[in-house]
Amino acid sequence: LPAVHLQESALKELAQVAPSVKGQSGSSTQMDEVTPAATFGTTVKSGLAVAESAGQREEEKSKLEKESEHEDESSLSDKETGAGEHHHLHLSSCHECLQLENSTIESVRFASAENIPELSDDCNSKLEEKNDDCLARGIKRVNLAGKPPNVLIYLGSETAKAEFEQVKSVLQECIDTDSYTIYQLHEEQVLKVPWIDNSLLLIIATEEPISEENHKQFMKFLSKGGKILAFSSSFTFDGIQIKRKNKLKKTVHELVVSKMDSTEMKLNLVVSGCIFEEVMKEDTSKVKTLSRLNNADKDIVIVRLTYGDSGGEAILSQAHLELDINSMDVQTEEDFNLLKMSNTKRYEVLKEILTSLGLRCELSEIPMLTPIYLLSSDEEIHLAFLKWLEGSVDAEGLRASSKVSLKFVSSCESKMEVTPSLMPVITEMGSFSSEHFSLKTYQQNLQTKKLGKILLFTEVTPTTMNLLDGLMFELPEEMGLIAIAARQTQGKGRGGNVWLSPVGCALSTLHVTIPLHSSLGQRIPFVQHLVSLAVVESVRSIPGYEDIDLRVKWPNDIYYSDLMKLGGVLVNSTLIETTFHVLIGFGFNVNNSNPTICINDLITKFNKEEGTKLKALTVDCLIARTVTVLERLIDIFQEKGPNGVLPRYYKYWVHSGKQVHLHSEEGPLAWIVGIDDYGFLQVHEEGKGVESVHPDGNSFDMLRNLIVPKH
Known about the structure:
By secondary structure, this protein is an alpha+beta fold. The protein has 14 helices and 28 strands. The strands form five sheets. The chain has an eleven-stranded mixed beta sheet, with helices on both faces. A nine-stranded mixed beta sheet has the order 2-1-3-4-11-10-9-6-7, with helices on both faces. It has a four-stranded antiparallel beta sheet with strand order 25-26-27-28, with no helix packed on it. Helix 10 runs parallel beside helix 13 (619-640) and helix 11 crosses helix 13 (619-640).
């Protein structure tokens, strides 16, 4: 077995140790009830662009197959690459590697204190010391449900994009879009995809009957503290039933809504044609009427129900709060006027309902895109880059690219236009200043030979993943490129997930080149593990910060303990001839307490518990330290293979002594024992020995529904 596998005796020890490990984690924190909360979006595919087209991939594949025919002639032996004796080298054409790389995307962490010289610990924060109660506030916010800030919209079997966009756009106008990510929950995902533990709110916006199986799933979500908001839906439970009143169907009626401050508000809305009736039960405290029609029968149209002991709650409405006037077939001018005049109130009611379900509704405006600044930590490299640029742009200073074209200008002009496809880059460093980023702090903490030397910094950009596209393939290798933004408006995550990117989050895309015929070049999926490890090490290698509970979660997440997500990594790689061009996107929360938790919250918590006075850390310091650690990790991996970095990776990962279900939630249990030479998770199932397992491709939780591949 490769050295990563645990010996039989170690497995037995692990089985014995596991319960006590679990016990410790439960008692060592007051947050043991908080389920993992993803700061960055966690769901449904929106078609992330992988760095190369299928055609290119096939071309590379055939090249790689030719390479593999000459494997014996290659200068790399198994021994040199750290592979097990009976393992063939995996090439990027290998289906498993491609699958892991494209669907999982990588994160990596690690650096050994023995092998890595001390980094500068001059990470002084310009920020004021945070109040001690800041963490408590942050936790309280999360504990409204203890769930990631994902909002799901279920539209039944309709796949119509238009309906989803209608409901989504209304929500985006009500809730703080920096704090939540909105996805569609498709019919086929309700039973198969692990959304229940990864969502805060489920919106049911369909009049279709709800199947018994789906109803059970929705009730399970409530039982785990989830919130449901239903519009004109047949979904009910406990003390409420639905009664049809066909004469009301799709008509405009006046509602009287009871507000949280006990006042009443009247407004006109389109109603569904159904009303609620209370079923007489002994315990009516779980049902509260929020709105009635202003008619003779005083029909109930909005109710609030609680469920279970974990804070589960549902607000059911038979009035169309979710639809604006353009989405409805309004027949008369009178109806049009009534609805238009009630529109402001409709938003007010909707916001109050969303707030009562635990969402933040203070609106943040979407910021304008800003120009890019060309910065460098090294004067000599800066001049060399400008010299290279002279021969690489047209007469207008334009460097064209299919993703983002860059226009290099010497100084900032007041009327400079910035669009998602064309961005000005200011080359004069003297005019640069930012409240979110200090070049001096970055320079002090960057101690690399190549990586991160040429920096494109911008306050606001759609995503840093596209900024380097037009430069990276031709730039000399010693000019390591990095793109950093204070905010992203369309950040990218694994499997097309949306990446929430507020101020206070470290947001960066780094360019790294890796030779195909090298230890890491044969195991490109490992890059993600090295990056995740580098993020954790960037904090935990600072003297005094070694016990900050920042950890690695396979395959590409950064966690607070094993409870809440703080960050993630995205890796896209393109093979050109015999060199991988790897774009590494990473984002982690440094100073943004909401909507989940950040590194400075952990430092505040640690200071409170230990009586220490560790300083808050800054984005500029930690990005530079991450890049520094990563370069050293890559060097170690190239020299020693996986075994050079795995001991440190395991020191910081969250999976020790943990079990997972294989195939499905009811599948057999297996102990997680490590990762193999290619970055796949290894598990030990009773009576079956150690096997590598693959994700099933769901984009909610990589550790759910793991598949044992057929060999």
